[in-house]
TrEMBL record, chain A:
Every Putative zinc-finger domain range: 5-38
Domain Anti-sigma K factor RskA C-terminal: 104-241
InterPro entries recorded: Anti-sigma-K/W_factor, Anti_sigma_zinc_sf, RskA_C, Znf_put
Record has Membrane as a keyword: yes
Subcellular compartments: Cell membrane; Membrane
Keywords on record: Cell membrane, Membrane, Transcription, Transcription regulation, Transmembrane, Transmembrane helix
Domain of life: Bacteria
Organism annotation: Streptomyces durbertensis
Protein name, UniProt field: Regulator of SigK
A Pfam family this chain is assigned to: zf-HC2
Keyword presence, Electron transport: no
Taxonomic lineage from the root: Bacteria, Bacillati, Actinomycetota, Actinomycetes, Kitasatosporales
TrEMBL record, chain B:
Family: Belongs to the sigma-70 factor family. ECF subfamily.
Species classification: Bacteria, Bacillati, Actinomycetota, Actinomycetes, Kitasatosporales
SUPFAM superfamilies listed in its UniProt record: Sigma2 domain of RNA polymerase sigma factors (SSF88946), Sigma3 and sigma4 domains of RNA polymerase sigma factors (SSF88659)
Chain ranges of the RNA polymerase sigma factor 70 region 4 type domain: 114-166
GN (gene name): sigK
Sequence ranges assigned to domain RNA polymerase sigma-70 region in this UniProt record: 15-82
Pfam families: Sigma70_r2 (PF04542), Sigma70_r4_2 (PF08281)
UniProt xrefs under PANTHER family: ECF RNA POLYMERASE SIGMA FACTOR SIGK, RNA POLYMERASE ECF-TYPE SIGMA FACTO
Protein name: ECF RNA polymerase sigma factor SigK
């Protein structure tokens, strides 16, 4: 409940571009799942546009010439087709439970990334790149979850979230999913770590529930860790791990 | 817009005449430096040309779409300049914090639209400052809170209340 209220107050700051980059991205991702937030953010953006219009002033005359002469060198983008995701079909003999889990996780990931892409495509180049990256991540995640050699380990964080690591040696990648993860305190992020012979190396971030690719060299790592770190992350863990689970063997 | 999406330069020329004042105006407000504002505004207009086919009328008006692109570009320009000089930035926030009353006043007197001016006057002091400092100065809500020496949650709430009141006062629909 509390979190929902917080998120709602952010729609205004989002429309005013008053969020820091990481918060902006997190909120944009949230918009994919929240119809009410999307509507409110759209209304606020329209309101902000009136503030922009009120500030209108004549541009320098030379600007038009420059824009019009540059136009020839700028290729127009084709219209974006509606967001579709290739259905993920497990190949080979996966254990039934693992297969069911893999499909559920892939569908959940597809839904959230698909929603993100669908909402953001009006938001300019940055969003386009993000969507492309999200699609790439989704492909990788699907590849791991449906790999013939996928191995699974389950765990629980000390703050109550359930986690699963699915690793594939063939793909040399691992996916971590979390569910029931509390929102971090303002200014903090969940950072992942890979244990290489006792040295914890940064392995990316977890922005909440869902599936993420573990970054870095997963094949030689013995365990995956999770800590809370100041926004932007740390070079090495600075707080007590919330989770330390062995890599699936 | 559809003609622009099909590469019609004459249509784009007309669209430019409609939108360039809005784009240049909002970018100048945030970026302030005239040469840089011109550069950013130019990029925004080329972005409109580039992305014309991706504009979706069902999501909102062209002006909203373009204003969103323009404001974000302007803010990105200001923030990347800030990131390049963190210490300077901290100093800038302190500098900007002093004359914030002037800022709000100056912004309002220079606003073209009578309606927007009137609706801004209908906000509480804190709502108005939260909205104008973030939108016209490109401050994050943290910087706004620091500038106004107000707690973060208060600023978030005032931004939202303020926008709701503006939205209703101006009769905004998407």
């Amino acid at each position: 409940m509390k979190q929902h209220e917080d998120v709602h107050t952010l729609a205004a700051a989002y429309a005013l571009n008053a969020l820091a980059a990481d918060e902006r991205d997190a909120f944009a991702a949230h918009l994919g799942d929240c119809e009410a937030c999307r509507l409110e953010a759209a209304e606020f953006e329209a309101t902000a546009a009136r503030l922009a219009a009120a500030a209108a002033q004549p541009p320098p005359a030379a600007m038009k010439e420059r824009v019009m002469s540059s136009v020839d060198g700028v290729r127009q983008l084709p219209p974006r087709l509606s967001a579709t995701t290739t259905p993920v079909r497990p190949r080979g003999p996966l254990r039934r439970q693992a297969a069911a889990f893999a499909i559920a996780a892939a569908v959940a990931a597809a839904a959230s990334f698909g929603g993100l892409a669908a909402w953001q495509y009006q938001q300019g180049e940055r969003a386009r790149d993000q969507a492309a990256q999200a699609e790439e991540r989704l492909r990788d995640i699907s590849a791991v979850l449906t790999a013939d050699d996928a191995r699974t380990v389950r765990g629980r964080t000390t703050n109550g979230a359930t986690t699963t690591i699915v690793a594939s040696r063939a793909h040399d990648m691992a996916v971590l999913t979390a569910s029931g993860l509390p929102a971090p305190a303002s200014g903090a992020v969940y950072q992942l770590w890979l244990d290489h012979d006792g040295t914890m190396l940064p392995a990316g971030f977890l922005h909440g529930d869902g599936a993420v690719l573990v970054e870095g060299d997963t094949s030689d790592a013995s365990a995956v860790g999770l800590t809370l770190e100041p926004a932007g992350g740390s070079e090495e863990p600075t707080t007590t791990p919330l989770l330390l689970m062995p890599m699936p063997g | 817009m559809e003609q622009v999406a099909h590469g019609d330069k004459d249509a784009f020329s007309t669209l430019y005449d409609h939108l360039a004042p809005l784009v240049f105006g909002v970018v100048s407000r945030v970026v302030r430096d005239r040469a840089q504002s011109e550069e950013v505004a130019q990029e925004v207009m080329l972005e409109v040309w580039r992305q014309a086919a991706r504009y979706r009328p069902e999501v909102g008006k062209v002006t909203t779409w373009v204003a969103t692109i323009a404001h974000r570009r302007a803010v990105d320009r200001v923030r990347s300049a800030q990131a390049a000089a963190d210490r300077e930035h901290a100093q800038a926030v302190r500098d900007r914090s002093r004359p914030f009353d002037d800022v709000v006043e100056r912004v309002e007197t220079r606003l073209e639209s009578e309606q927007v001016r009137r609706c801004l006057r209908g906000l509480t002091e804190l709502q108005r400052q939260a909205v104008t400092l973030s939108y016209y100065r490109g401050l994050t809500y943290r910087e706004v809170a620091e500038t106004l020496r107000a707690p973060l949650p208060t600023i978030k709430t005032r931004m939202r209340d303020g926008l709701i009141r503006l939205r209703d006062c101006m009769g905004v629909t998407t």
